[in-house]
Amino acid sequence: MTKILITGGAGFIGGNFIHFMMKKYPAYKIHNLDLLTYAGDLTKHHQLYSYPNYSFTQLDIADRKAINELFYKEQFDFVVHFAAESHVDRSILDPGIFVHTNVLGTQVLLDAAKAIGVRKFVHISTDEVYGDLPFRPELYFTEETPLQPNSPYSASKASSDLLVRAYYETYGLPINITRCSNNYGPYHFPEKLIPMAITRVMKGQKVPVYGTGQNIRDWLHVYDHCAAVDLVLHNGADGEVYNIGGHNEHANLEVVKTIIKTLGRDYDLIQFVEDRLGHDKRYAIDPSKIEALGWKPVHSFESGIAETIQWYQENQRWWQQILSGEYRQYFEKQYSIE
Q1: Which CATH number do you get for residue 114?
Q2: pLDDT-derived band of residue 335, with 50, 70 and 90 as boundaries?
């Protein structure tokens, strides 16, 4: 039986990837590894515990002894590494946590993967490692764009990318690195722009928008991202980097206005706030390389945002327990989290 370790599987993208893989590959054994920090949510996986091919371990990826024991016990065939501290604002306040998890944690996983000889290590990164793009539509991030991170978060991800590359070049560890644009979709933790805006508008609360709201992001539906990672896992050429973008560039203000309009509220809910430190102006990905591998995004932003808003309308119980903190009780009892 093929065994896959998915780190960060209690998070937004990793959690959706588990659902994707369980559905597409029912014969695979899926092991979910997550520390269950504030953004870790296992309620989305409650229906999986009856599946004999799903298992979960609560563990810090930087805990070398425990990670080594897990790898030697399970003998994973593949590792898909989503686990990361990912919120830019939090990285500005406390960069050290990001270095611990994103850099040291990745290095610990690489050592363990090398020791047991995994067939593939896929490292999930971000387009933010490339830095900033001017407002010029002909400019895009490619896999050859130099890394120029501008926040402690993106700097920690760029550092982990370079470690992953080094383990391929030095030790021959079969790896791939994927760098995606901004994801959105079901189970997105409400601190991020789209779920924050949806939940606040539904509650009639003000939606904070940084600066003038003209910062542009390339939006990628999480289901399209999952399909791309699956393709890279099984068909990516060893050592290669693949950019994953949605061909959906929109300014933050435009995104918030779309949400407000769809939910039938007034734009006076928008509240402009002081801009984020070092706020990158624009991200935009050229996904030609992964498209040549056989991938195309299925969701346009128009269809994807409409489906996402509907999901939050139909799953209010999920995000309400996230906002209240009640979701922590679900697994504190099971995993003795302090």
Answers
A1: 3.40.50.720
A2: very low
